[in-house]
Design a protein that fits this description.
The structure holds 2 protein chains of 2 kinds. Chain A is mainly beta. Chain A is built from no helices and 11 strands. Chain A has strands at 5-7, 10-14, 19-24, 31-37, 44-49, 55-58, 61-65, 71-76, 85-92, 103-105, 109-114. The model of chain A has no long low-confidence stretch (mean pLDDT 90). By secondary structure, chain B is mainly β. Chain B has strands spanning 4-7, 10-13, 18-25, 31-37, 44-50, 53-57, 64-70, 73-79, 87-94, 106-107, 111-115. In chain B, strands 2, 4, 5, 6, 9, 10 and 11 form a 7-stranded mixed sheet that branches. Chain B has a 4-stranded antiparallel sheet with strand order 1-3-8-7, with no helix packed on it. The mean pLDDT of chain B is 91. The chains are: A mainly beta, B mainly beta. Chain A binds chain B through residues 30-31, 33, 35, 39-45, 48, 50, 86, 88, 90, 92, 94, 97-103, 105-108, 110, and chain B through 2, 4, 6, 30-31, 33, 39-43, 45, 48, 50, 55-56, 88, 90, 92, 94, 96-110, 112.
């Protein structure tokens, strides 16, 4: 059973379009991170959301954490070819009050933005 | 500085070879991780070290042997690997420990391992 359901798995769009990637779970997370990864490189942290209902903006990227801290979304406005990559959400559950345990990843969204 | 450094970047090894992957961070993080990632798939957790002690082993075969010599270094020793072990191996670190409930994990560039 996948703890974090990420959708869509593949997204192919034209430059200038908007898109949203979703990350859903039935579990509550203490925090949720979004990463972007290019082929052959490690994931690069984009943002961490912690508080239910939190909205964070990073240039054309808007991240939202659900009120119940079970889901999150990433919205990209006016996508550019440089946005192409694998987008990963990852959540950290509370485990006995400690936080150094598992970081659970969604399946990832492969985004391709065509010029 | 949020840098996690992994060496080597690429590694080709035969099935009878012994090799090691290295990871280093100087952020004062006390949790360090090894992940394995296949193409277009999310990273899969292999091991977690907390305060230089192995805290999680995700039932990884014994041909992978982790080592944490000190709080800044993490090694992964490889022996008698199979071609299906070819993948991108990622190291990560986070503040970890105690009751810090929202510590981000920072990843290295990875080592692209090919077993022939």
């Amino acid at each position: 059973t996948q703890l974090l359901e990420q959708s869509p798995q593949f997204l192919s769009i034209q430059e200038g379009e908007n898109l949203t990637v979703y990350c859903n779970s039935s579990s509550v997370f203490s925090s949720l991170q979004w990463y972007r990864q290019e082929p052959g490189e490690g994931p690069v942290l984009l943002v961490t959301v912690v508080t239910g209902g939190e909205v964070k903006k990073l240039k054309r990227l808007t991240f939202q954490f659900g009120d119940a801290r079970k889901d999150s979304s990433l919205h990209i406005t006016a996508a550019q070819p440089g946005d192409t990559g694998l987008y990963l959400c990852a959540g950290r559950k509370l485990a006995g009050g400690t936080s150094y345990g598992k970081l659970t990843f969604g399946q990832g969204t492969i985004l391709t933005v065509h010029p | 500085d949020t840098e996690v450094t992994q060496t080597p970047k690429h590694l080709v090894m035969g099935m009878t070879n012994k090799k090691s992957l290295k990871c280093e961070q100087h952020m004062g993080h006390r949790a360090m991780y090894w992940y394995k990632q296949k193409a277009k798939k999310p990273p899969e957790l292999m091991f977690v070290y907390s305060y230089e002690k192995l805290s999680i082993n995700e039932s990884v075969p014994s041909r992978f042997s982790p080592e944490c010599p000190n709080s800044s270094l993490l090694n992964l020793h490889l022996h008698a690997l199979q071609p299906e072990d070819s993948a991108l191996y990622l190291c990560a670190s986070s503040q970890g420990g105690g009751r810090r409930v929202y510590t981000e994990a920072f990843f290295g560039q990875g080592t692209r391992l090919t077993v022939v």
